[in-house]
Amino acid sequence: MNDLTLVRKNLFRKKLRAVLLMVSILIAFLIFGVLGAVQNAFSFGVNTAAQERLVTVNRVNFTVPLPYAYWGRIQQVDGVRDVAPASWFGGYYQQPQNFIQAFAVDPASYLAVYPEMVVPADQRAAFIEGRTCALAGRALATQYGWSVGDRIPLMSNIWRQTDGSEAWDLDICGVFDDLEGTYPTNYLIFHYDYFNESLAYGRDSFHWMTLTTVDPARNDEVSQAIDELFANSRAETATSTEAAFNAAFMEQFGNIGLILGLVVSAAFATILMIVGTTMVMAVNERTKEIAVMKTLGFPAPRIFRMVLGESLLLSLLGGLIGLGLAWLAVSGAGAAMAGVMPGIALTTPTMLTALGLMLVFGLVTGLLPAMNAMRVRIALALGKI
Amino acid sequence: MTDATPLYELKGLSKRYMRGREATTIFDQLDMTISHGDFIAVMGPSGSGKTTLLNLLGGIDAPSSGEVRFEGARIDNLGQGQLAKWRAANVGFIFQFYNLMPTLTAAQNVEMPLLLTKLSAGERKKRVKTALDIVGISDRAGHRPRQLSGGQQQRVAIARAIVADPKVLLADEPTGDLDRATADEILQTLQLLNKDMGKTIIMVTHDPAAAKYARRELHLDKGRFVEKELA
User: Fold this and answer.
1) Is residue A226 a contact partner of residue A239, using CB atoms and an 8 Å limit?
2) Is residue A204 pLDDT above 80, yes or no?
3) Per-residue pLDDT averaged across B13-26, rounded?
4) pLDDT tens digits, one per residue of A105-155
5) Using the beta-carbon criterion (under 8 Å), do A300 and B112 form an inter-chain contact?
6) The CATH number of B37-60+85-229 is which of 3.30.420.10, 3.40.50.300, 3.40.47.10, 2.40.50.40?
7) How far is Cα A340 from Cα A155, in angstroms, rounded to an integer?
8) A293–B112: do the CB atoms touch at under 8 Å?
9) Is the reported ipTM for this assembly greater than 0.85?
10) Chain B residue with the nearest C-alpha to that of A286
11) Residue A118: DSSP 8-state
12) Nearest C-alpha neighbor of A211 from the set A196, A190, A191, A226
């Protein structure tokens, strides 16, 4: 027997109470883990943005198109290496609920700007050559069971063709991968020309242009030059880094970090009060036993540590089980949602933060009962005065 | 310390409590000496200060004035940490209601004072077995307090009190919650510990029959001692 035995036995003296407290903590850390993984998914685009890439959009916002002619003019700006124009297609496959993130792009320049997209050489060539070809990300292709050679109708709830059709028939000419797991493969690209030529409205325009510079150190200079080029035109531009563009895009959904933070904080505050109050009551019930321990010669600091140890053990047990369940849930959801929400994962920083929170939680809930235990006056507690 | 140094020496000991705005004197200017190997029964009416005296001797309460010396050294002016160490090394406590830890087995209860020593787990186990053997309860080592009778629980409590080999045992109404036959068994055990193992025992009791097991009786009344030699 040692102090840990005493800590463990005291913690589980009322098993139902200990288990219920542990479940409360477990729920808090399950929520923390799952929402942490969701937040990671939301910031995936920001985290994976390359430093040297810039994005040019309409100064109003990125949903307002830029004229086709801007592509050629931006290519002429000093310091620009490659420019890839893209239009947001949105769209769905078979059913409106099967949302597909699809962009109409210039194939060669898009692949040049995004070297992270790993495509077999023959598929790459086929995609660039074939007017109706599309290149699907691995996660998206897996989700819908597409393989090279398939023909799929991609519907749009934004665009319409001159013949009134809302479907673009696409051939899956290639599937792109991401070997390092840092680039999303949950979307599809196809030929801008094929898209543009059949449009009933909004022809000859792009929503954004992604570009690379010859040297990341020149990014500010290039951004400024592009925006000055189109200053006072009918479509002024705003050029920023890809990371800033992605962050602005995610902000459309609101401040995800703040919302998730508030949800987690509310859960933690509630459970903190429940566990803290219960721990105080649990230790108060043992005042006489603590007095006996002091009578036997256990020094007050050692009793303080033992009571604090109880709340730490409780917090770690509940927290680790909760985090384990979050990991299982996120792993399952991650595979199922790879096409919709890439990057949903319980990352090491999230787990380390959770571990830190467990320690803080244990210390906060244990501090008051531990101080009460340390201050127990033997004669008073044993009812001898 | 020499052999002539008494175990306890109380000089001008006073204890007063404030009850509301009124000061109550439990005893005033009390002097007393207790020798090594003594077995004293402290008797007296309720409220006479018997338990308070025991608390002062055990260092779990402080006097209002006066000195408590243990083997020549003052303990009344020690800090809480020093007193805890002193108690662990020198005093074994036996309570009326046993005060065993309900979540621990008899053996684990007895082992508790040894957690304050540097003994190895093996050595602790040996000592626990010896203590349980002395009080005749080793067959119940794995039982929890609620699985034991009152007499058995008090035997475990005595084993816990002696396991660290203290110089003095302070017993507060050790048979107050037991029937006569069980009380006699417990008192015989205490007598054995005093006679055969030389433990000094100071026992507070209301029971004249229990007091007869002691070497001498001290009657505490109105803050004064009246002594009676026995055996």
Assistant:
1) yes
2) yes
3) 82
4) 999 999 999 988 899 999 999 999 999 999 999 989 998 999 999 999 999
5) no
6) 3.40.50.300
7) 17
8) yes
9) yes
10) B101
11) B
12) A226
